[in-house]
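Dear colleague,

Thank you for sharing your sequence with our group. We've completed the structure prediction you requested, and as agreed, I am returning the results in plain text so they can be pasted directly into your records. Please verify that the sequence below matches your submission; if there's any discrepancy, let me know and we will rerun it promptly.
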Amino acid sequence: MSTPVADSTNRLGWLLGDLEIPGVRFAVLLSEDGLRIAHSRGIAKDDAERFAAAASGLRSLGKALGEFCGGPQNAVRQNMTEYDEGMIMITAAGVGALLGVATTVDVDVALVAHRMNELASRVGHEIGSAPRNGDR
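Please find the predicted structure tokens below.
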């Protein structure tokens, strides 16, 4: 069952509760094409929408660089970008959906990655989203 992307109620925001751990600023569920599906309490809806668009772009860059790590069909498992004040982590979360997390510098990266992968595998069928088409 796919989740409609155009859901302004944030009804799936509760799923992100497992990621409310020390060092995690917020989490956002997004479609591969950059639309917000849900967001945690740590970020406003408008900022979550901007994050979703940027995270989708970062994921696309990761796909473009995959061939340099093995070949043109080399799939991205997880994106991790480190900044002076934290990290952005993005992983697949169901068909056509991604899970993005922003952290502080004082975070247990292994724990966050583990929780992200656990969440993605546990609820991937709920948060999957179909690609948009021109008929809508």
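Summary note from our side: Residues 45-65 form the longest helix (21 residues).

Kind regards,
the structure core
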